[in-house]
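hey m, so remember when u said the tokens were messed up on ur end? i reran from scratch. heres the input so u can diff it against urs
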Amino acid sequence: MALMKKMRPDFCLLFGGYVSFAPLIAALLCRVPVAVHEQYTIAGKVTRIAHKLHLPIFSGWQECEPFQADSFYYAGIPIRNFQKVDRREAWSKLDVGIDIPEGPIVGVLSGSLTRSPLFQVICELSVKSEFRHVSFLIVGGKGICPNSNNMIAVERQWDMSIIYSVVDIVIARAGASTLAELLTCAIPSLIVPWRGAADGHQLSNARLFKKLTGNYVWDESSPAQVLKQNLVQCLSQERDESAKGEALVPWQNQSCELIWKTLISLVRRESL
């Protein structure tokens, strides 16, 4: 509250979560215009409170349950800028000590994956005859991933441009930012939503992501055979060459620009 009174910002933009509740109340008490950005397809508690107060809501997706489509601004999810890198150059930056594999490369964005039974399933699939020509790049799997001819572990990467320039497909959870990155970079994906996510938002995120992209979603309650079939089908897709790193220009995400333009419009409206 004291900081809000001292700064007296022209506008306050919050990005959801419990941490946004205190500044939301402070902005309202200090009569500072405020809006909330919701990155999930299911609105969180703070976003729902803001909606009941008739405050502007930005959504990362075309859907934001339980709100009607005309009651929020679709703006997408702001992500870092990614620069396409030549594939071989990107591989050399990973410093894995071997030449770039000849066959397809599946990027496994481990996160919670390496701490779940799913990771063991992926390890078992990697030795199947269908995947002997495939290399699995386990991002964040250093020291966890078992030694294998086609499983390559690397440290977590701050610059994901390197990973996205190397891989042919990605296996990942359904976190909103990850899905926004995959959508922006047009990478064929096999999404495995975490069932423990609050309000089932990863399941909802994955459902809409599949609807928008046609990519595959595997529910961990389904048999491993289904995951195997999904992976085979995903590998059969051809990724656009311009998305693989041959066209060395930035991948474009317009979310920040959309949010900024809408904020300027709202500020001007408030000042009238």
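this time it looks ok to me. Residues 255-271 form the longest helix (17 residues). if urs says something different then somethings off w ur setup not the seq
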